[in-house]
Design brief:
Number of domains: 2
CATH class of the largest domain: Alpha Beta
Strand content: 15-25%
Order of helices and strands: EHHEEEHEHEHH
Structural class: alpha/beta
Number of helices: 6
Strand order of the largest sheet: 3-4-2-1-5-6
Helix content: 25-40%
Number of strands: 6
Radius of gyration: 22 Å
Oligomer: single chain
Shape: elongated
CATH architecture of the largest domain: 3-Layer(aba) Sandwich
Length: 170
């Protein structure tokens, strides 16, 4: 099921993302990508934000999560949301997520399902995180050689291995 999401309205309702955070949009997009991945292709999102420079589709977009910024001087998210609603060919399949009454009214007028941002957050909270299969233990092991390689790459200090443990590079 595709969702059309008013990005900043949703961020304002999320307990773990703050509108004052300069990375708030990226954090929401990451959260939506995780939700879509968990649904294994049974969900798509288009999220629209205010104040993009220059506006339009963002490089954060993927096949399943389209990210659009309203151009700062020419538009706003609400206007783009309503335009998207009017242009949608299969409105009965879409769900609009917003706290803006004019956007929700437009969705209703075009026979779209809708949720307030708070209702969508509640729906997200009801989604349990992906868990390992019952009875399966997860045991990730990293060798000392792998740790040393990462330490060398990222400047973590001295090697943990003794000199004879790793083959020398040519």
């Amino acid at each position: 099921m595709p969702y059309l999401i008013d990005g900043h309205n949703l961020i304002a309702r999320l307990p773990d993302i703050d509108l004052a955070d300069p990375n708030d949009e990226a954090k929401l997009v990451t959260k939506l990508k995780g939700l879509v991945a968990k649904k294994r292709g049974r969900m798509q999102c288009t999220v629209i934000f205010d104040c993009g420079l220059p506006g339009g589709y963002s490089a954060m977009s993927t096949k399943s999560v389209q990210v659009i910024f309203a151009a700062m001087q020419h538009s706003d998210a609400d206007r783009l949301l309503k335009l998207h609603i009017r242009r949608t060919r299969d409105p009965k399949n879409w769900t609009v997520v917003s706290s803006d009454q004019a956007v929700l009214d437009c969705a209703r007028a075009h026979k779209m399902k809708w949720l307030t941002s708070a209702e969508f957050v509640d729906k997200l909270a009801g989604e349990s995180p992906a868990e390992d299969a019952p009875g399966e233990e997860v045991d990730i092991q990293i060798s000392d050689a792998e740790v040393d390689e990462w330490m060398d790459l990222f400047g973590g200090g001295e090697s943990r291995s003794s000199p004879g443990e790793m083959a020398e590079s040519p």
